[in-house]
Amino acid sequence: MHDAVKHIHDSGALLRAEHRACDAAGKLTDKTVEVLRQSQGMKLLQARSHGGLEADIRDFFAWVRAVAQYNPSAGWVAGVVGVHPWEIALCDGKLQDEIYGRDASTWVASPYAPFGRARRVEGGFILNGEWPYSTGTDHCTWIVLGGMVMDADGNVPMPPDVRHFFLPRSDYQIIEDTWQVMGLVGTGSKNVRVVDAFVPDHRIVGHVALSEGEYRGRRADTPLYHLPFGCVFSAAISSGTFGIARGTIDAYREQLQSRVSVSGVVGKSDPFQQEALAEAEADLDAGIAHVDVMTMDLLARIAAGQPMSAAVRLDYRRNQVRAVQRVLASVDKLLARAGSPSVWTTRALEHYWRDLRTAGTHICNVTDSIYPAWAAQALNTGALVNAFY
Fold first, then answer.
1. Which of 100, 117, 145 is the last residue of a domain?
2. What pTM was computed for the model?
3. Containing H/E element for 231?
């Protein structure tokens, strides 16, 4: 077990105690942030050249799961913010120096959705836009935002030129009271706004170029950074989801110990509840193993010099989404068997389940885009399907 993961388990009681406090604050509490910083988990995918650990990516997945097990909102922030150093390691060295030069523990927010519009000027772009879902943004001093480059007439060409724009905290505004949701309230995933910000060329990454591995030469000797961007980011999201599922199942098991129905059925002796629990545990273990094994297969392909083709990446994403969907379905069955005690907002089970179901809505966890994209490629239909892979 990596020291970062051990630190989280050792601090589990504190993180769990801060679960509701994070929701009440609408962001992670200072105590929660301090635990994450002390664990060094945000540095697991960060380049050694800029103060990071360059750890085994499975240790990062395990760290995210551990955080989410005890505090879902913190786990979600760990997955989203913690994966950004992986991309930053492939960015221009000047940008890496700007982000980490003064503080190697700097956190970088997002999102990648291309809501921004960028106009070319000398030396860079002028960026404008407003983005929802900036997870953990209150605790970050940089941000990476998705945007489309406009043509000379101010229109978005087809296909769009999507890029990632990195900005310091002085160049964007956090919009308060824009995160009103049923779950993961403590992530503070507020809107951010950019008005006429100049973004120099060295702070910009091409989305397609990143997905196709065109920046890998900057880290030629480090296989970690040769993994496909869409697979790494999606696996971080599923890790947070698996961790929340772990916490939900833990809450169910705790409740089951003392549950007796009005008809006198003892919960832990009820075969229907035992069945639901067994299936949820098995599906969660299978989901975690599936993502880990697929990731190691990608690393083996990299070691063998094999290309990260669209087919390989789409197979990964199809399986990753399916693994999450199995876990969500089995936990839903668990809640259905838990009866009326599962709906009380004063109890941990209901709280965790709301967080889990909110996690399940992330684009990296839903089937709507990735299954058609996989089928279009596998069946050679020629259909153009937008998907994150």
1. 100
2. 0.95
3. helix 229-256
Roughly how many angstroms between the first and final C-alpha of the chain, as a whole number?
29
- Please report the pLDDT score of residue 383 as a whole number: 72
* CA atoms of 211 and 232, how far apart (whole Å): 10
Calpha distance 379→387 (Å, rounded): 16
Measured from the Cβ of residue 286, the count of other Cβ atoms closer than 10 Å reads 14
Rounded CA-CA distance 37/74 in Å is 12
368 within domain boundaries: yes
Query: Would 213 be classed as within a structural domain?
Result: no
Domain that includes residue 119, residue range: 108-205
Q: Which helix (H) or strand (E) holds 193?
A: strand 190-200
Residue tagged 């596998």 (tokens): 378
pLDDT reading at 59 higher than 80: yes
**What does each C-alpha distance from 129 to 111, 113, 189, 374 come to in angstroms?**
12, 11, 16, 31
Which of 93-97, 284-288, 304-308 is least confident?
Answer: 304-308
108 strand-pairing partners:
142
- 239 domain-assigned: yes
- Cβ contact 135:76 at 8 Å: yes
Exposure string for 98-134, b = 16+ CB within 10 A, e = fewer: bbbeeeeebbbbbbbbbbbbbeeeeebbbbbbbbebb
Compute the distance between CA of residue 53 and CA of residue 295 in angstroms, rounded to an integer: 19
- Neighbouring CB atoms inside 10 A of 345's CB total 7
Domain count, the chain: 3
